Amino acid sequence: MTAAPEIGSARLRSEDARLITGRTNWTDNIQLPGLLHAAFLRSPVSHARITRVDVEAARERPGVVAVFSGADFADEQGSLPCAWPVTEDMVLPDHPPIAVEEVRYVGEPVAVVVARDRYAAADALEAIDVDYEALPPVLDMEEAIKEGADLVHADKGTNRSYEWVFEAGDIDAAFRDAPVVIERRYVQQRLIPTAMEPRAVVCSVVGDEYTLWSATQIPHILRLMLATVTGIPEHRLRVIAPDVGGGFGSKLQVYGEEVACLLLAKRLGRPVKWTESRSEGNATVHHGRDQIQRLSLAAEADGRIRGLKVDLLADMGAYLMLVTPGVPLLGAFMFNGIYKMDAYNFTCAGIFTTKTPTDAYRGAGRPEATFGIERLMDELANELSLDPLEVRRRNWIAHEEFPYDTIAGLTYDSGNYEAATDKAKELFGYDELRAEQAERRERQDPVQLGIGISTFTEMCGLAPSRVLGSLAYGAGGWEHASVRVLPSGKVEVVTGASAHGQGHETAWAQITADRLGVPFEDVRVLHGDTSISPKGMDTYGSRSLAVGGVALYNACDKVIEKAKRVAAHLLEADEKDIEFAGGSFSVRGVPDQTRSIQEVSLATFAAHDLPEGFEPSLDSDATHDPDNFSFPHGTHLCAVEVDTETGFAKIRSYVAVDDVGKVVNPLIVEGQVHGGLAQGIAQALYEEAVYDADGNLTTTTMADYLVPSAADLPTFTTDRTETPATTNPLGVKGVGEAGTIASTPAVVNSIVDALRPYGVNDVPMPCTPERVWRAIRGGGPEHSSQPGAGGGLGSAGGEA
Amino acid sequence: MPRVSVEVDGVKYDDDVEPRLLLAHYLRDRLGKVGTPIGCDTSNCGACTVLLDGMSVKSCSVLAVQADGKDVTTIEGLGDGHGLHPLQQAFHEEHALQCGYCTPGMIMAALDLIRENPDPSDQEVREGLEGNLCRCTGYQNIVRAVQNAAGAMRQSPAQEEATR
Amino acid sequence: MIPGSFDYVRPSSLDEAVTALREAGDEGKVIAGGQSLLPLLRLRLAYPEVLIDVGSVPELHGVRDEGSSLLVGAMTTHYEVIRDPLIREHAPLVAAATSTVADPAVRHRGTLGGSLAHADPAGDLPAVAVAMDAVFVTSSREIPAGEFFADYLTSALEPDEVLVGVRLPKAYAGWGFHYEKFHRTAQAWAIVGVACLVDRSNGGIAGARIGLTNMGSRPVRASAVEEAVAGGAADGEAFRAAAENAAEGTSPPSDLHGSADYRRHLAQVLTARALSKAAGA
Asked: Residues A428, A434, A436, CA angle at the centre, nearest 5°?
């Protein structure tokens, strides 16, 4: 009897049981005997020399165990790592976990208190006295690269960390005499990732054994990096990522607070916990995006693209963190999108400013690139008075052209942009909405309708190690899995991926159940602890299924290969004649003679009667290094109603047709798309990290950094086409970032489309009502930010 | 230090507390009721939502002393000890959670919403949950889960009583 | 984040509350529902030495019918205001505006008196109070709404004065009403809000009362609009013409969510809309 396939079934998630009942293991939940609490004093200024740190008074406060300044750790705290030196001459400044001589962004740690509880620790911070000698803030990238600009790192002599160039085709020829040239400057505003769980760290030391719990996406990378930074031997350090409440890239990091907690536990010989507050986190969790894009597109009169020039300034913030410099470069491979062109030129300069460091945020480089090209395609359509879908169709790679070598040097293995677009158009009612738009324009309705398009692709499944090597990334891109078949036939799967909301415990069990023919309930998935899963590259870049899932697939195959030998022995048949299906081994042509995988497992455990020379274990490991990236794609259509009197933009409908290849669990895939859309829409409409002229972050609370609620978002229509990836046996592509990558340009395109009759061809993000209103009025000065005035004051929408 | 008497999920507690102790920290750090997490400083995110005398509140914006003499229900007090509450069941069935950090607050807020409005429209659910932020789900499945749970609770109103 | 230390007293009568405030001097702070105060304490933007919790003061509770007005106890929660039959009947604008305040959980704790005493010009209720000439009844006197809001986050309350309740006149019970709130997200503060009452007794607009949220350091009356619209027709054109005066005499802030000139523009658009909705036209 063969059960229905698990792969492709909408299994309810196993991890829900603890999450819906409050039996969760967040890092801040962890209690240990003698646990102390740390709190960090942070720089209140954007840029200054530290001339004095006096911690004496703080040490006298009740409940305080210890207080340290950065200088107290200067000899052992090392420098926080950057694993991606993108060029040989990249400027890489020292980055002490706790500042010693200079602070370079508001929120940078300056001193740390350790006390008996979090209240005492917070109180003692106020007793620390720090003298700062002001240095000029560096806030504007375009100013920062000018001759004689104030410097973030004076000793480096420049604010430019690197310049990275990619060229393909003859760009001059493409632009020479081009019938159409579109030039635009777009700004990718700075975002705060805002995982719902704030960061938290617990560190315990017993003898020379260190255990560090952290709300991290990357327990494995973190262990290696912490060992490197602190000198604690890697094999003495265990890193655990317990339940982790979202990451979106923000927990793909090695944070100073993690290093500090390790050093504090070591120095004090007692366990230490640190949990950040939201306002602390908004200023100090790495930020995302923040690019100035100067784009030029050359095209034929019929809309076919000749060439694309991309010139980026990417804000690094004050320091280079784990993959800071590489993030914008991931966009280098994506600015061409799904389109064919003859020439492409990409230049990116990484710029230091006295702001919070940037790093990966959901999509990491690809949303920025997708935004650029998808906005340009709409501009091109407008220039040529063509339907924006038609311009895209004239340029995209036709489905029969796959595999296709793109101008950016990637090979797209598969895709069907026609199918996804056709489906999306139909679900959306594209023609009807265009008719309504025309009608509203005709009668000059104060509420105008706009239609936004995004026919996107992305690269995920990070990543082929050889490619990472060629990009000077400091590690490989493989993933590991092991499968342990227990005597009772139950199965433990250990994965190097580190889920923090994605549902690996369910999806991995589905893959295993299908491959081994065991019930779904008989599989347990273990992850997120370097002692349980010693090998892994963790979870980011929509890689877990496309890389880690394939590792698991391969490990299961190895189990079956081993089990076949045992089964052949038990069935007294030749191994070549053994067939395996539905968890059962049989001899070809003798279907009534079978051994279940559970029987084989028990026999292997007993080991009384095994084939000659057989090692008595079915357990298997696999490490998978992908041959290529995977390339999810899709067509997203957004209809927006813009109130031209107030500038308020309201999404009326949103259709997302995604092609993420084969699907292991459609429920999880749909959820990933929904959440991705919400974040991409949030960039288009709501979110922006704002610094004032002195370099103070003014969006430190959720009252000012506007994360949308249920009341602010529409009901999405989602659907899929399924063009399997040809580069992995599961046919999967990855779905974690697709929604975010696709949706931002769809929304902005829809707003600009609504406002075309007003001569508008851009609205800067986020498209706030005021910006929309100003665009309609034909520009005018941007408002100045004067924090503190006019309500809010860091308080909620509530009133006492 | 003031003394508070509070009943939390059916258990009575008498404790001396600092006046400034937040109810959320009292639950988490003193009582070990860590099912209720904290997500912000400004009462915007709603992760810490519990019921105080049957009404939803953000436990990070209530002092423990203000809860004196009152009854607190947290996510850990839902269900009858064996089965899941209809809201918990619906969140599971509709895939209304991913990382799960907002889920306790979201469920407690939804419970309050259904108490007020046993048969809400989608828009009423969205507006009723405006004080609870989720970063993973885009809310769509949450809305569906609350609708389904409301339907189930209309079928068997006794379930709701069991949570008081 | 975590509040600094403070002492806490919970008086059980108005006299006790006043005495406690007097003893605390400048270092005392009244806490009602705490929904504005607690975030400020947690962010350490406020450092009172003593919190005086007026939640158990009986004089501050309940809604009383005084004949020509209602006296709404300061501790009446937003939740109670929205549902109170007397308020819904005699001062429905208050209930309508209150239903836009924050979110349900905050409305369970937050109180009418607390949000008014907080005197945040971005709050929704101060504009309503000035629109309808509410009277603030304190432990020692009565203060007209026009004098209660002294400045940004500053009320006319003396350090030892407790807000007991708010007297809402019934005079506007039959008037059309609307609170027009404009904000970027459901939870965000109003960039601009318009509290509007219109008297339709003459078929057109016999009179109007309009209060503006977040158009200055205190809630302001749009008196010029009130004058322009009175005696006129109840139609969109008349409302738009009158509303062109909405920003007159205001000094709106420029901040993260909107510049002053955008707010002036919004005040005009939203006032016209509020008039239309209040008039049912």
From this structure: 100
Which band of pLDDT confidence, cut at 50, 70 and 90, is reported for residue B158? low
Instruction: Round to whole Å and give the CA distance between C145 and C239.
Output: 25
Contacts of A798 in chain C (CB under 8 A): 35-36, 39, 101-103, 106, 109-110
Q: Confirm if A519 and A480 have CB atoms less than 8 A apart.
A: no
Within 90-129 of A, beta carbons closer than 8 Å to B belong to 117-119
The answer to whether C123 contacts chain A (CB < 8 Å) is yes
Whether A773 and C259 lie within 8 Å, measured CB to CB = no
Chain A closest-CA separation from residue B161 CA (Å): 18
- CA dist A605 and A583 (Å) reads 17
Residue A327 DSSP SS3: helix
Q: Give the pLDDT score at A300.
A: 98
Residues of chain B with Cβ-Cβ distance to C42 below 8 Å are: 22, 41-42, 60
Distance between start and end Cα atoms, chain B: 30
Q: Give me the residue label for tokens 């068997």.
A: B156
β-pair partners for A4: none
Mean pLDDT by 10 residues, chain C (281 residues): 96 97 95 96 95 97 97 98 98 98 98 97 98 98 97 96 98 97 96 98 96 97 97 96 97 95 98 97 75
HSE-CB for A655 with a 13 A CA cutoff: 22
CB of A702 within 8 Å of any CB in chain B?
A: yes
**In the predicted model, is pLDDT for residue A793 greater than 60?**
no
Q: Which residue of A has its CA nearest to C55?
A: A800
What average pLDDT does range B14-43 have in this prediction? Answer: 98
Whether C102 sits inside 8 A of A796 (CB atoms) is: yes
Tokens describing residue B134: 């989720």
Nearest of A300, A302, A310, A301 to residue A337 by alpha carbon: A310
DSSP state of B141: H
Q: What is the pTM of this model?
A: 0.96
Preceding peptide of A766 cis, ω within 30°: yes
Predicted confidence band at A786 (pLDDT cuts at 50, 70, 90)? very low
Report yes or no: A620 and A565 within 8 Å, Cβ to Cβ. no
Tally of CB atoms within 10 A around A444: 9
Please tell me which of the candidates A26, A117, A797 has its beta carbon nearest to residue B37. Answer: A26
DSSP state of B26: I
pLDDT digits (tens, 9 = 90+) for A607-629: 999 999 999 999 999 999 999 99
pLDDT tens track for A102-140: 999 999 999 999 999 999 999 999 999 999 999 999 999
Predicted ipTM > 0.90: yes
Structure tokens at B9: 């999920």
Residue A403 preceded by cis peptide, ω within 30: yes
The β-bridge relationship of strands A305-317 and A343-352 is: parallel
CA angle A249, A253, A255 (to 5 degrees): 135
How many other C-beta atoms lie within 10 A of the C-beta of residue C59?
18
A16–B75 CB contact, under 8 Å: no
DSSP 8-state class, residue A335? T
Cα A708 from Cα A716, distance rounded (Å): 15
Q: Residue type for A419, please?
A: A
Give the span between the Cα atoms of A86 and A133, in whole angstroms.
33
What pLDDT score does A787 carry?
Answer: 34
Q: What is the dihedral of CA A242, A244, A248, A252, to 10 degrees?
A: -30
